[in-house]
Amino acid sequence: MRTIFLLGVSVFILMLLGCASVTVTKTAKGYYPPADADEIEILVTVPDRTVRDFVELATVTTQHWSTKETAKMHNSLRSKCAPLGADAVILGSSGIDYDGYYWANGVAIRYVEGIPTENNSAKPTSENTGKKIKGYQTAGKDASGKPIVVPVYE
User: Fold this and answer.
1) CB-based contact 128:64 (threshold 8 Å)
2) CA pair distance 77, 40, nearest whole angstrom
3) For a Cys staple, 37 with which of 82, 85, 95, 143, CB 3.0–4.6 Å?
4) What are the structural domains of the chain?
5) How far is Cα 66 from Cα 129, in angstroms, rounded to an integer?
């Protein structure tokens, strides 16, 4: 009887304490090769898209972390977003809940290689095509009116 009581108390304590969690919800179309979790950046500001454009891969939510476990939380975000091919996680909002635990919400992103924007000189890689890129040309406009820029191969 005592064993059952101790087991019940242990389960109740574990339920009260809870555990840290990371939830990732894929929002992008298609798939990318997995990334190295050690290379994923954790950002608290949105990168300037005129310097380096990106696509959103997923929303991320994490909660119930001790304020002393920020590095652990970041590493957990990295490991959960790596299979999606993320280059970075942008934490848009964060705080400490009423129990004193850290929480954060954000998005996992992948940098878009080779799509030049108005003020950058990004060059696409030719890894997938095996062809040398000699320049760019516009191929019309997308639904939002932005020009579609495509590489021109030799």
Assistant:
1) no
2) 9
3) 82
4) 18-113 (3.30.110.70), 123-154 (no CATH)
5) 47
Alpha-carbon distance values, 31 to 24, 58, 80, 105 (Å) = 15, 12, 15, 22
Tell me whether strands 102-111 and 54-65 are parallel, antiparallel or unpaired.
Answer: antiparallel
**What DSSP string runs through 63-132?**
EEE-GGGHHHHHHHHHHHHGGGT-SEEEEEEEEE-TTS-EEEEEEEEEE-TT---TT-------TTT-S-
pTM confidence score: 0.63
> What is the token pair recorded at 153?
């191969």
Query: Mean pLDDT lowest for which of 47-51, 71-75, 147-151?
Result: 147-151
